[in-house]
Amino acid sequence: MAFRNAQQARVYxxxxxxxxxxxxxxxxxxxxxxxxxxxxxxxxxxxxxQETSSFSVDGPLDVDATTNGQYDAIATIKAxxxxxxxxxxxxxxxxxxxxxESNETNFTTMxxxxxxxxxxxxxxxxxxxxxxxxxxxxxVAVTATQNGSAIDGAAATSNGAVFHxxxxxxxxxxxxxxxxxxxxxxxxxxxxxxxxxxxxxxxSQRVAITGAVKQYVRxxxxxxxxxxxxxxxxxxxx
Length: 238
Hints:
Structural class: mainly beta
Order of helices and strands: EEEEHEEEEEEEEEEE
Shape: globular
Strand content: over 45%
Distance between the termini: 28 Å
Number of strands: 15
Low-confidence stretches: none
Radius of gyration: 20 Å
Number of helices: 1
Largest sheet: 10 strands, antiparallel
């Protein structure tokens, strides 16, 4: 058996790379079952119903009140009326990747004598939670137009995919058009299969597609201006 230290876990909540603000993170995935037992049955009978998931994270609160900093980012998500992408990697960037989008249901700050000022957040997911994700590029600083590395998905798939983009730093550049391409060989025949809305600042986005996805996938950045953008990109095949 191979076990891992929890320090390898990583989590992104919207524009916030939350790992360095967290002491713990928890993801619960539950599938409801419906009791359809009748008088004719001699044992309980149930059928599978809807899936639901929830997410929570807690840790020390950063005293920096900078716009888009930890406190401001979480408070903004709490006030949002649209779901926020959450990417959770309990085993680290080379292990399982969970992709979901959630509505923040609770944001708590706590202070007490002899203790740090802490924060906690809980969120209720909406839609499908994908538990079989892969990191395409983790929190990399990009300064110019580039093609990312080819990520081998082992085989082509036919049921579409979902992609997450978390931009955690944005300085100097005018914009970055982030797209996803696939290829059957990993060396040629690349074609765009997913496009994120142009990034002109800190942002997080979730894009889902249907249909076939070839064996190899990569991230492409088309950068305008001088500076850098730091972003995490991951995907899950369906």
